[in-house]
Design a protein that fits this description.
The protein is α+β, with helices and mostly antiparallel strands. It has three domains: about 120 residues, Butyryl-Coa Dehydrogenase, subunit A, domain 1; about 110 residues, Butyryl-CoA Dehydrogenase, subunit A, domain 2; about 150 residues, Butyryl-CoA Dehydrogenase, subunit A, domain 3, CATH 1.20.140.10. About 45% of the residues lie in helices and about 15% in strands.
Length: about 400
Amino acid sequence: MDFSLSPEVDAIRQKIRAFVEDRLIPLEADRASYDEHENIAPALLRTLRAEAKAAGLWALSLPKARGGGGLSMVGIAPCYEEMNRSIFGPVVFNAAAPDDGNMRVLEQVAREDQKARWLQPIIDGEVQSAFAMTEPDGCGSDPSMTYTRAERRGNDRWVIHGRKHYITGAGEAKHFILMARTSDDNRKGLTAFLFHADSPGWRIVRRIPIMGPEEHGGHCELEFDGLEIPDEDRLMGIGDGLKLTQIRLGPARLTHCMRWTGMGRRALEIAMARIETRHAFGSALIEKESVQGMIGQAAMELDIGRLLTMRAAWVLDQGGYARKEVSMAKVVVADALQRAVDTSLQLLGARGYSKDTPVEWMYRYARQARLVDGASEVHRMVLANMLRREGKDFFAWGAAHG
Protein backbone atom coordinates (compact mmCIF):
# COMPACT_ATOMS: atom_id res chain seq x y z
CA MET A 1 0.00 0.00 0.00
CA ASP A 2 1.78 3.10 -1.32
CA PHE A 3 0.46 6.45 -0.06
CA SER A 4 2.43 8.54 -2.54
CA LEU A 5 0.34 10.15 -5.28
CA SER A 6 0.86 9.42 -8.94
CA PRO A 7 2.11 12.39 -11.00
CA GLU A 8 -1.29 12.57 -12.77
CA VAL A 9 -3.30 12.68 -9.54
CA ASP A 10 -0.95 15.14 -7.86
CA ALA A 11 -1.15 17.47 -10.85
CA ILE A 12 -4.95 17.44 -10.61
CA ARG A 13 -4.79 17.94 -6.85
CA GLN A 14 -2.58 20.98 -7.27
CA LYS A 15 -4.90 22.46 -9.91
CA ILE A 16 -7.82 22.03 -7.52
CA ARG A 17 -5.83 23.61 -4.70
CA ALA A 18 -5.05 26.65 -6.85
CA PHE A 19 -8.68 26.96 -7.97
CA VAL A 20 -9.89 26.79 -4.37
CA GLU A 21 -7.32 29.32 -3.18
CA ASP A 22 -7.78 31.77 -6.04
CA ARG A 23 -11.48 31.51 -6.87
CA LEU A 24 -13.44 30.03 -3.97
CA ILE A 25 -11.96 31.03 -0.62
CA PRO A 26 -12.05 34.78 -1.41
CA LEU A 27 -15.80 34.48 -2.08
CA GLU A 28 -16.59 33.10 1.38
CA ALA A 29 -16.22 36.53 3.02
CA ASP A 30 -18.80 38.18 0.72
CA ARG A 31 -22.39 37.71 1.91
CA ALA A 32 -23.56 38.22 -1.68
CA SER A 33 -21.96 34.85 -2.48
CA TYR A 34 -24.64 33.01 -0.43
CA ASP A 35 -28.26 32.10 -1.01
CA GLU A 36 -30.94 32.23 1.67
CA HIS A 37 -29.95 28.76 2.92
CA GLU A 38 -26.26 29.66 3.45
CA ASN A 39 -25.11 27.88 0.35
CA ILE A 40 -23.33 29.30 -2.66
CA ALA A 41 -25.69 31.48 -4.71
CA PRO A 42 -27.05 29.71 -7.83
CA ALA A 43 -25.87 32.28 -10.39
CA LEU A 44 -22.36 32.30 -8.93
CA LEU A 45 -22.38 28.51 -8.82
CA ARG A 46 -23.17 28.29 -12.53
CA THR A 47 -20.24 30.55 -13.36
CA LEU A 48 -17.78 28.63 -11.21
CA ARG A 49 -18.99 25.25 -12.46
CA ALA A 50 -18.31 26.36 -16.03
CA GLU A 51 -14.79 27.35 -15.00
CA ALA A 52 -14.18 24.05 -13.20
CA LYS A 53 -15.42 22.07 -16.21
CA ALA A 54 -13.22 24.10 -18.58
CA ALA A 55 -10.22 23.42 -16.32
CA GLY A 56 -10.78 19.65 -16.52
CA LEU A 57 -11.71 19.38 -12.83
CA TRP A 58 -15.25 18.09 -13.30
CA ALA A 59 -16.90 14.92 -11.95
CA LEU A 60 -13.54 13.31 -11.29
CA SER A 61 -14.95 9.95 -10.16
CA LEU A 62 -16.87 9.32 -13.39
CA PRO A 63 -15.44 7.79 -16.59
CA LYS A 64 -13.72 10.09 -19.05
CA ALA A 65 -15.99 8.78 -21.80
CA ARG A 66 -18.92 10.35 -19.95
CA GLY A 67 -17.17 13.66 -19.31
CA GLY A 68 -15.63 12.84 -15.95
CA GLY A 69 -12.08 12.54 -14.70
CA GLY A 70 -11.76 8.76 -14.63
CA LEU A 71 -9.98 8.64 -11.27
CA SER A 72 -9.94 5.68 -8.87
CA MET A 73 -11.08 5.91 -5.26
CA VAL A 74 -7.48 6.42 -4.18
CA GLY A 75 -7.15 9.09 -6.84
CA ILE A 76 -10.17 11.12 -5.80
CA ALA A 77 -9.31 11.05 -2.07
CA PRO A 78 -6.66 13.82 -2.12
CA CYS A 79 -8.64 15.74 -4.74
CA TYR A 80 -11.88 15.76 -2.72
CA GLU A 81 -9.89 16.79 0.34
CA GLU A 82 -8.52 19.82 -1.51
CA MET A 83 -11.99 20.72 -2.81
CA ASN A 84 -13.51 20.98 0.65
CA ARG A 85 -10.90 23.37 1.95
CA SER A 86 -13.62 25.77 0.79
CA ILE A 87 -17.17 25.40 2.05
CA PHE A 88 -18.24 26.02 -1.57
CA GLY A 89 -15.85 23.48 -3.05
CA PRO A 90 -17.48 20.08 -3.65
CA VAL A 91 -20.61 21.35 -5.42
CA VAL A 92 -18.52 23.52 -7.75
CA PHE A 93 -16.61 20.47 -9.00
CA ASN A 94 -19.73 18.23 -9.19
CA ALA A 95 -18.37 16.14 -6.34
CA ALA A 96 -20.97 16.84 -3.65
CA ALA A 97 -23.49 14.53 -2.03
CA PRO A 98 -25.95 13.23 -3.01
CA ASP A 99 -25.13 13.62 -6.72
CA ASP A 100 -21.67 12.11 -6.33
CA GLY A 101 -22.99 8.87 -4.83
CA ASN A 102 -25.96 8.71 -7.20
CA MET A 103 -23.75 9.13 -10.26
CA ARG A 104 -21.40 6.43 -9.06
CA VAL A 105 -24.11 3.84 -8.42
CA LEU A 106 -25.91 4.58 -11.68
CA GLU A 107 -22.66 4.13 -13.58
CA GLN A 108 -22.17 0.77 -11.86
CA VAL A 109 -25.63 -0.79 -12.10
CA ALA A 110 -27.86 1.02 -14.60
CA ARG A 111 -28.54 -0.24 -18.12
CA GLU A 112 -27.02 1.77 -20.96
CA ASP A 113 -30.37 3.30 -21.91
CA GLN A 114 -30.93 4.25 -18.26
CA LYS A 115 -27.49 5.85 -18.10
CA ALA A 116 -28.26 8.00 -21.13
CA ARG A 117 -31.55 9.20 -19.66
CA TRP A 118 -30.92 9.35 -15.91
CA LEU A 119 -27.14 9.55 -15.37
CA GLN A 120 -25.70 11.70 -18.13
CA PRO A 121 -27.73 14.85 -17.27
CA ILE A 122 -26.39 14.68 -13.69
CA ILE A 123 -22.81 14.33 -14.92
CA ASP A 124 -23.33 17.24 -17.30
CA GLY A 125 -24.62 19.39 -14.44
CA GLU A 126 -28.01 19.88 -16.09
CA VAL A 127 -30.03 18.42 -13.20
CA GLN A 128 -29.63 17.54 -9.54
CA SER A 129 -30.57 14.18 -8.07
CA ALA A 130 -31.75 12.70 -4.77
CA PHE A 131 -31.65 9.29 -3.08
CA ALA A 132 -34.98 8.65 -1.35
CA MET A 133 -34.47 6.00 1.31
CA THR A 134 -34.91 7.36 4.87
CA GLU A 135 -38.43 7.29 6.34
CA PRO A 136 -40.16 9.03 9.28
CA ASP A 137 -41.24 5.78 10.98
CA GLY A 138 -38.84 3.35 9.37
CA CYS A 139 -35.46 3.02 7.77
CA GLY A 140 -32.51 5.22 8.53
CA SER A 141 -29.37 3.27 9.23
CA ASP A 142 -31.36 0.05 8.66
CA PRO A 143 -32.73 -0.04 5.07
CA SER A 144 -34.69 -3.22 5.83
CA MET A 145 -37.15 -1.07 7.84
CA THR A 146 -38.67 0.35 4.67
CA TYR A 147 -42.45 0.78 4.73
CA THR A 148 -42.97 2.70 1.49
CA ARG A 149 -44.48 0.11 -0.84
CA ALA A 150 -44.43 -0.46 -4.58
CA GLU A 151 -47.35 -2.54 -5.85
CA ARG A 152 -47.24 -4.04 -9.30
CA ARG A 153 -50.04 -3.13 -11.70
CA GLY A 154 -50.08 -5.37 -14.72
CA ASN A 155 -46.73 -6.21 -16.28
CA ASP A 156 -45.48 -2.73 -17.04
CA ARG A 157 -45.87 -0.41 -14.06
CA TRP A 158 -45.60 0.03 -10.30
CA VAL A 159 -47.64 2.24 -7.96
CA ILE A 160 -45.93 3.82 -4.94
CA HIS A 161 -47.44 4.75 -1.57
CA GLY A 162 -45.52 5.95 1.49
CA ARG A 163 -43.40 8.70 2.98
CA LYS A 164 -39.73 9.63 3.06
CA HIS A 165 -37.91 12.30 5.04
CA TYR A 166 -34.55 14.07 5.29
CA ILE A 167 -34.10 13.49 1.55
CA THR A 168 -31.09 15.61 0.71
CA GLY A 169 -31.46 17.88 -2.31
CA ALA A 170 -35.07 16.89 -3.00
CA GLY A 171 -36.24 20.50 -3.26
CA GLU A 172 -34.15 21.06 -6.39
CA ALA A 173 -33.71 17.51 -7.68
CA LYS A 174 -35.17 16.33 -10.97
CA HIS A 175 -33.91 12.73 -10.97
CA PHE A 176 -34.69 10.49 -8.01
CA ILE A 177 -33.61 7.01 -6.93
CA LEU A 178 -36.41 5.62 -4.76
CA MET A 179 -36.24 2.64 -2.41
CA ALA A 180 -39.56 0.82 -1.91
CA ARG A 181 -40.76 -2.49 -0.52
CA THR A 182 -41.96 -5.02 -3.08
CA SER A 183 -42.23 -8.05 -0.75
CA ASP A 184 -41.87 -8.96 2.92
CA ASP A 185 -38.69 -10.96 2.36
CA ASN A 186 -35.98 -9.74 4.77
CA ARG A 187 -33.18 -9.83 2.18
CA LYS A 188 -34.99 -9.51 -1.15
CA GLY A 189 -37.92 -7.33 -0.19
CA LEU A 190 -36.65 -3.98 -1.49
CA THR A 191 -36.47 -2.69 -5.03
CA ALA A 192 -34.97 0.52 -6.46
CA PHE A 193 -36.82 2.74 -8.93
CA LEU A 194 -36.08 5.88 -10.94
CA PHE A 195 -38.55 8.73 -11.32
CA HIS A 196 -38.59 12.33 -12.51
CA ALA A 197 -39.72 15.25 -10.37
CA ASP A 198 -42.44 16.13 -12.90
CA SER A 199 -44.21 12.79 -12.40
CA PRO A 200 -47.65 13.08 -10.72
CA GLY A 201 -48.54 11.16 -7.58
CA TRP A 202 -46.00 12.57 -5.13
CA ARG A 203 -45.27 15.85 -3.38
CA ILE A 204 -42.80 17.60 -1.12
CA VAL A 205 -44.55 17.96 2.22
CA ARG A 206 -41.97 20.37 3.62
CA ARG A 207 -38.36 21.43 3.52
CA ILE A 208 -37.25 20.43 7.02
CA PRO A 209 -35.41 23.20 8.92
CA ILE A 210 -32.04 21.99 10.16
CA MET A 211 -29.33 23.20 12.52
CA GLY A 212 -26.62 23.60 9.92
CA PRO A 213 -26.22 25.11 6.46
CA GLU A 214 -28.14 23.24 3.77
CA GLU A 215 -27.23 21.63 0.49
CA HIS A 216 -29.06 22.99 -2.55
CA GLY A 217 -32.56 21.58 -2.31
CA GLY A 218 -32.43 21.14 1.44
CA HIS A 219 -33.59 18.08 3.38
CA CYS A 220 -37.20 17.33 2.55
CA GLU A 221 -40.14 15.21 3.63
CA LEU A 222 -41.89 13.50 0.70
CA GLU A 223 -45.27 11.85 0.33
CA PHE A 224 -46.10 9.24 -2.32
CA ASP A 225 -49.79 8.79 -3.06
CA GLY A 226 -50.10 6.79 -6.25
CA LEU A 227 -46.87 7.67 -8.07
CA GLU A 228 -46.76 5.41 -11.13
CA ILE A 229 -43.36 4.21 -12.33
CA PRO A 230 -42.95 2.19 -15.54
CA ASP A 231 -41.20 -1.14 -15.02
CA GLU A 232 -38.50 0.01 -17.47
CA ASP A 233 -37.50 2.57 -14.83
CA ARG A 234 -36.83 -0.11 -12.24
CA LEU A 235 -33.13 -0.09 -11.29
CA MET A 236 -31.58 -3.58 -11.13
CA GLY A 237 -33.78 -6.61 -10.48
CA ILE A 238 -36.87 -6.94 -8.33
CA GLY A 239 -35.62 -7.50 -4.79
CA ASP A 240 -32.13 -6.07 -5.46
CA GLY A 241 -32.76 -2.86 -3.53
CA LEU A 242 -30.73 -3.82 -0.47
CA LYS A 243 -27.85 -4.82 -2.72
CA LEU A 244 -28.04 -1.44 -4.44
CA THR A 245 -27.91 0.43 -1.12
CA GLN A 246 -24.79 -1.52 -0.15
CA ILE A 247 -23.15 -0.71 -3.50
CA ARG A 248 -23.99 2.97 -3.13
CA LEU A 249 -23.56 3.75 0.55
CA GLY A 250 -20.08 2.34 1.25
CA PRO A 251 -18.20 4.49 -1.28
CA ALA A 252 -20.52 7.44 -0.54
CA ARG A 253 -19.60 7.30 3.14
CA LEU A 254 -15.95 7.29 2.18
CA THR A 255 -16.27 10.32 -0.08
CA HIS A 256 -17.80 12.13 2.90
CA CYS A 257 -14.61 11.31 4.80
CA MET A 258 -12.45 12.65 1.97
CA ARG A 259 -14.32 15.96 1.98
CA TRP A 260 -14.44 16.23 5.77
CA THR A 261 -10.67 15.96 6.13
CA GLY A 262 -10.38 18.96 3.81
CA MET A 263 -12.81 20.99 5.91
CA GLY A 264 -10.98 20.01 9.10
CA ARG A 265 -7.67 21.06 7.58
CA ARG A 266 -9.08 24.44 6.59
CA ALA A 267 -10.45 25.04 10.09
CA LEU A 268 -6.99 24.45 11.55
CA GLU A 269 -5.39 26.68 8.91
CA ILE A 270 -7.67 29.55 9.92
CA ALA A 271 -6.83 28.99 13.59
CA MET A 272 -3.08 28.75 12.95
CA ALA A 273 -3.04 32.04 11.06
CA ARG A 274 -4.69 33.70 14.05
CA ILE A 275 -2.70 32.20 16.92
CA GLU A 276 0.63 32.85 15.21
CA THR A 277 -0.02 36.61 15.41
CA ARG A 278 -2.34 37.05 18.38
CA HIS A 279 -0.50 37.81 21.62
CA ALA A 280 -1.64 37.40 25.23
CA PHE A 281 0.25 37.40 28.50
CA GLY A 282 3.57 38.23 26.88
CA SER A 283 3.71 35.82 23.93
CA ALA A 284 1.90 34.59 20.85
CA LEU A 285 -0.86 32.08 21.53
CA ILE A 286 0.99 29.44 19.54
CA GLU A 287 3.75 29.53 22.16
CA LYS A 288 1.35 28.45 24.91
CA GLU A 289 1.71 24.77 25.80
CA SER A 290 -2.04 24.30 26.23
CA VAL A 291 -2.69 25.74 22.77
CA GLN A 292 -0.02 23.51 21.22
CA GLY A 293 -1.68 20.50 22.80
CA MET A 294 -5.05 21.40 21.31
CA ILE A 295 -3.67 21.98 17.83
CA GLY A 296 -1.45 18.92 17.93
CA GLN A 297 -4.29 16.62 19.00
CA ALA A 298 -6.63 17.92 16.30
CA ALA A 299 -3.97 17.62 13.59
CA MET A 300 -3.08 14.08 14.66
CA GLU A 301 -6.71 12.93 14.60
CA LEU A 302 -7.22 14.38 11.13
CA ASP A 303 -4.18 12.58 9.81
CA ILE A 304 -5.29 9.28 11.36
CA GLY A 305 -8.59 9.77 9.59
CA ARG A 306 -6.86 10.45 6.28
CA LEU A 307 -4.85 7.24 6.58
CA LEU A 308 -7.97 5.19 7.33
CA THR A 309 -9.74 6.84 4.40
CA MET A 310 -6.91 6.03 2.01
CA ARG A 311 -6.77 2.44 3.24
CA ALA A 312 -10.48 2.00 2.63
CA ALA A 313 -10.16 3.58 -0.82
CA TRP A 314 -7.32 1.20 -1.65
CA VAL A 315 -9.36 -1.83 -0.56
CA LEU A 316 -12.26 -0.71 -2.77
CA ASP A 317 -9.90 -0.25 -5.71
CA GLN A 318 -8.61 -3.80 -5.15
CA GLY A 319 -12.14 -5.15 -5.49
CA GLY A 320 -12.94 -5.55 -1.79
CA TYR A 321 -16.14 -4.38 -0.11
CA ALA A 322 -14.18 -2.47 2.58
CA ARG A 323 -17.06 -2.69 5.05
CA LYS A 324 -14.89 -2.57 8.15
CA GLU A 325 -12.44 -0.09 6.64
CA VAL A 326 -15.21 2.32 5.62
CA SER A 327 -16.89 2.07 9.03
CA MET A 328 -13.61 2.80 10.81
CA ALA A 329 -12.93 5.80 8.58
CA LYS A 330 -16.46 7.12 8.98
CA VAL A 331 -16.32 7.07 12.79
CA VAL A 332 -12.79 8.47 13.12
CA VAL A 333 -13.09 11.21 10.49
CA ALA A 334 -16.46 12.41 11.81
CA ASP A 335 -14.90 12.82 15.26
CA ALA A 336 -11.75 14.38 13.81
CA LEU A 337 -13.74 16.95 11.86
CA GLN A 338 -15.67 18.01 14.92
CA ARG A 339 -12.49 18.16 16.99
CA ALA A 340 -10.73 20.31 14.39
CA VAL A 341 -13.58 22.76 13.96
CA ASP A 342 -14.30 23.01 17.68
CA THR A 343 -10.60 23.58 18.38
CA SER A 344 -10.45 26.30 15.76
CA LEU A 345 -13.52 28.06 17.14
CA GLN A 346 -12.15 27.90 20.69
CA LEU A 347 -8.82 29.38 19.68
CA LEU A 348 -10.42 32.11 17.60
CA GLY A 349 -12.63 33.07 20.53
CA ALA A 350 -15.40 35.55 19.73
CA ARG A 351 -14.05 35.86 16.19
CA GLY A 352 -14.72 32.16 15.64
CA TYR A 353 -18.24 32.44 17.05
CA SER A 354 -19.01 35.34 14.73
CA LYS A 355 -19.51 35.21 10.97
CA ASP A 356 -16.20 36.96 10.32
CA THR A 357 -14.74 33.57 9.40
CA PRO A 358 -16.44 30.43 7.96
CA VAL A 359 -15.62 28.50 11.15
CA GLU A 360 -19.06 28.99 12.73
CA TRP A 361 -20.59 27.69 9.45
CA MET A 362 -18.29 24.66 9.66
CA TYR A 363 -19.15 24.14 13.32
CA ARG A 364 -22.87 23.83 12.62
CA TYR A 365 -22.21 21.66 9.56
CA ALA A 366 -19.75 19.35 11.33
CA ARG A 367 -22.21 18.06 13.92
CA GLN A 368 -24.10 16.11 11.29
CA ALA A 369 -21.00 14.06 10.42
CA ARG A 370 -21.61 11.68 13.30
CA LEU A 371 -25.17 11.06 12.08
CA VAL A 372 -25.33 11.03 8.29
CA ASP A 373 -24.81 7.80 6.34
CA GLY A 374 -25.06 5.76 9.52
CA ALA A 375 -24.63 7.03 13.07
CA SER A 376 -21.24 6.40 14.66
CA GLU A 377 -22.86 3.97 17.11
CA VAL A 378 -24.16 1.86 14.21
CA HIS A 379 -20.73 1.67 12.63
CA ARG A 380 -19.18 0.65 15.96
CA MET A 381 -21.82 -2.07 16.23
CA VAL A 382 -20.92 -3.27 12.72
CA LEU A 383 -17.25 -3.44 13.71
CA ALA A 384 -18.02 -5.31 16.93
CA ASN A 385 -20.10 -7.88 15.07
CA MET A 386 -17.39 -8.35 12.48
CA LEU A 387 -14.84 -8.87 15.25
CA ARG A 388 -17.08 -11.52 16.84
CA ARG A 389 -17.49 -13.28 13.52
CA GLU A 390 -13.92 -13.05 12.23
CA GLY A 391 -11.91 -13.33 15.43
CA LYS A 392 -8.18 -13.05 14.72
CA ASP A 393 -8.88 -12.62 11.01
CA PHE A 394 -10.43 -9.23 11.78
CA PHE A 395 -6.86 -7.88 11.90
CA ALA A 396 -5.58 -9.75 8.84
CA TRP A 397 -3.51 -7.94 6.22
CA GLY A 398 -5.05 -7.86 2.76
CA ALA A 399 -7.38 -6.11 0.38
CA ALA A 400 -10.51 -8.15 -0.14
CA HIS A 401 -12.26 -7.76 3.22
CA GLY A 402 -15.98 -8.45 3.28
